[in-house]
Amino acid sequence: MNSVKRRYILFGIILTVIVTVGLIFEYIHLNEIITSEKKESIDRSLEYLRYQINSNLKLHSQYAVAAAEYISLGNWTEDGVKEYFEKIMENDPYIKSVYFKDKDNRLIATDSANSPKSYEWVEENFNTMDIENDRLFYSDIIQDSLENEPIIAIAKPVYDRNSEFIGAVVCDISLEKIIDIVEETDTDDLGYSFLIDSTGNIFAHPGYKDKSSKEIVNINSISENTHNELKKIKSGEIEVELNGVLGHLFFKPIENTDWVIGNFMSSNDLRKNEWNMIDLYATSLGVSLAIFVIFMYLQSKSIIQPIMKLDDDIRNINIEKNIEYRLPIDIMDPFIELRKSINLALDKAQEFFEQIEKDKEELMSQHKELIASYNELAENIEQRKILEEKLRDLSYRDQLTGLYNRRFFDEMIHKLDREENLPLAIIMADVNGLKLINDSFGHIIGDELLKSIARIIKKGIRESDIACRLSGDEFVIILPKTTLEDAKKIIDRLKDLSFGRRFLKDKGIDIEISVAYGIGVKDKPNMDILQVIKEAEDYMYSRKLFEGSKMRSRTIETIVDFLYKKSKREEEHSKRVAELCKQMAIALNLPEDKVEETYTAGLLHDIGKIAISDDALNNYEPYSNKGWEKIKKHPEIGYRILSTVNEMGQIAEYVLYHHERYDGLGHPKGLKGKEIPLVSRIIAIVDTYEMLSSDMPNKKAILEDEVIEKLLRNAGTHFDPELVEIFIEKVLNIKLMKLN
């Protein structure tokens, strides 16, 4: 009997030890799983927070980038910039202010009455923005003392078309959204999250809004040296004590900033399941001891079978395969309490696992949402890259001709100025007579000429060559790996393409296309590319002096022909005035060359009317206001046209002054008496006589006696009185006394 009792006792001890060891192992296993899941949940939560904060910063940053690009394009006014800034603030309510500070300390802000909160930070970092070149800068937290809320500043350097630093656009951003993101993120009892800047200031944590009226909290004030530790490690997990609470700090950096997003969980919370399991273990152990005592008490009742049954039931426990399995309950079973305790432990274990599975499902759902948001953001970024590339290409293009512009030329000439591109040839091209054409036919015709020349250049150069329009009438072609001989061949091809071509011949204008070219070649590494460009320019200008004068003379002939085609009356009027001017010069006994000059001036005196509309020409009446305001500019236009040809400089001056009055009340300069050139005074008399004595579209010619009477009446006011008498008596052969 004692032997059986000892066996029972031994069996009971072994059973108790087995149960206890099994619980310990289950406890260790479950604790490791739960702790690991908590850490993974915290890591995913931090990653989600970091993504949300990065997205929020990028959203605000795009307005700073857009404003910087707007200013860099140039041609803006201060009011226009302010209006643009106000639209940005309307689009993003979290932007508290937008302003532009240039390198001359000029400030353009939406609210000029108050200095922006971040201005001091911008002043401190302004030189860095220039040196570090075209990236975004994020400030640390700045406390808005007026509105009692934290803000940050996002700054974007601005460069002009020559890539010179001109200033920075700054957006002051409210941290309200970022704080909400941190505070509203569900951490599922996994501690709390917070955000700190590069100086250690905490600006997003639980209860932050309740503490907004107080000063900003620095993490070093609640945990010594923690911030230094975060700077060293950048990302991971450290054990710290915050406000006297020992725990674990999990943290990650925020992209493009020195900020850190962290999650703190106390050691007690992290190991809360550990204490629960210890309680469970203590309960189970107590029940086991009770079973052992009962076993000793009931040993005489053959308790071995219930023990064996219990052992079998316990062996059937397998949480991984069947988490819902429970030990059978029998009220007559001496181990019923033990079974209930084990089932209670299994219930707790099932609750833990179900909670973990629920967390997994929620995290997977959040993960899917993040992936969807990421894909959408990636698509938007790709579209924006395409748009930026198009805008960049437009910024490098001349809008009129489609060729590259000066900005592109300045960048490319420095990129190509390398030994592997030698010899590097430069062809400078200048349009002959563009100003003359603009003055005569208008800028629309001049623009069409430039587009025609651009098409010729595109057709005549090679695929590897780069053609740019530098200014109004000046073009340049960059030819990598091109000798002087090859560059000359390209110029010959361009000349062949333009030879004999007449511009707008179908519209009756018939202008010759003429371009002066110059070449410079860099064939040695130590040569200065700017000197090569100047060499090409000098050669081009020398050719322009030789070719331009001939072209302008031919263009003036075209202008006269076009004016005559435009108005047959003007042709007849000009020829009659020229003939009468010649007779007047002969009557004054002027030298033969002066007589010829007077004839030419009379013939060309109305050449400026080429720029006057047909309506104005047909409605013009001498000494009346009808059409006069439109037509009175034709002497100045004629002067600009004729002065482009050196040998017509004196005639241009006669044409300029032929509407001056003897009493000084004429135009354009109000010359008086003999200050007016003799030829101009002659043209004034003859021009008036011819118009009054000729039929015009809106009036009939008047009788010659009436014409002479008007001339005499205006002698001394409009006309030189001596010349009026000579014209009447010697050119018209009318004795003045016959009129008395």
Task: For the structure shown, list the relevant keywords.
single chain; 740 residues; alpha+beta; Beta-Lactamase; six-stranded antiparallel β-sheet; 18 strands; rod-shaped
Give structural notes.
There is one protein chain. The protein is an alpha+beta fold and 740 residues long. It has five domains: 1-72 and 271-351, no CATH class; 73-174, Beta-Lactamase (2-Layer Sandwich), CATH 3.30.450; 178-270, 2-Layer Sandwich (Beta-Lactamase), CATH 3.30.450; 406-558, Alpha-Beta Plaits (2-Layer Sandwich), CATH 3.30.70.270; 567-739, Hypothetical protein af1432 (Orthogonal Bundle). The chain has 23 helices and 18 strands. The strands form four sheets. Strands 1, 2, 3, 4, 5 and 6 form a six-stranded antiparallel β-sheet that branches. A hairpin with a 4-residue loop joins strand 4 and strand 5 (149-159). It starts with a helix and ends in a 9-residue tail after the last helix.
Mean pLDDT: 79
Overall geometry comes to rod-shaped
The biggest sheet, with number of strands, parallel, antiparallel or mixed sense and barrel status, is:
6 strands, antiparallel
* N-end to C-end Cα span: 179 Å
CATH class of the largest domain: Mainly Alpha
State the helix count. Answer: 23
Count of DSSP E strands? 18
Taking all Cα atoms into account, the compactness measure Rg is 48 Å
CATH superfamily of the largest domain: Hypothetical protein af1432
Which structural class matches the secondary elements? alpha+beta
The overall number of domains is 5
Q: Bin the strand percentage.
A: 5-15%
- By CATH, the topology of the largest domain is Hypothetical protein af1432
**Which percent bin holds the helix content?**
40-55%
Q: Which residue ranges are poorly predicted, with pLDDT under 50 across at least 5 consecutive positions?
A: 208-214
- What CATH architecture of the largest domain would you give? Orthogonal Bundle
